[in-house]
Write a structure and sequence with these properties.
By secondary structure, the protein is mainly α. The protein contains six helices and two strands; from the N terminus they run αβαβαααα. The protein has one domain: P-loop containing nucleotide triphosphate hydrolases (Rossmann fold, 3-Layer(aba) Sandwich), CATH 3.40.50. The two termini are about 30 Å apart.
């Protein structure tokens, strides 16, 4: 669902980019899903004309910080995940890429969805 949402955001960016108001600087990969395969996000980014500028790995500290209404850096300032957010912030700040994305068609999104479904099936445990 995140790729569908990102594609819809790209449609909005493309709609307003002709006014020189909005551009896409890249994709941030969020590893909090059932499939932790950055290659799918990389392929999506390339197809829309951009790149992955950073990623956040799965971490139990994220929901714990959210429950306490804190950022991860506030909640666990010396943790690996806090350092990942700091690195991401530097990547975003230093990124000067600006593109008008080319959103994917429904067929292209369906192909990515099929690939995700295949990965999910590969991860399923066999019945005993």
């Amino acid at each position: 669902m995140a790729i569908y949402a990102a594609n819809n955001i790209c449609k909005g960016i493309k709609r307003f980019a002709d006014r020189d108001e909005v551009f896409l600087g890249g994709i941030i990969y969020n590893g909090r899903s059932a499939i932790n395969d950055p290659s799918i996000v990389d392929r999506f980014a390339k197809k829309i004309g951009t790149s992955v500028i950073g990623g956040i790995p799965m971490s139990g500290a994220i929901p714990k910080a959210e429950i306490r209404h804190k950022t991860v850096i506030e909640y666990e300032p010396d943790s690996e995940i806090a350092n990942a957010f700091r690195c991401l912030a530097k990547s975003v700040y230093n990124n000067h890429d600006r593109v008008i994305p080319e959103p994917l068609s429904d067929d292209e999104l369906d192909k990515i969805n099929e690939d995700i479904d295949t990965l999910l099936k590969e991860k399923e445990m066999p019945a005993i």
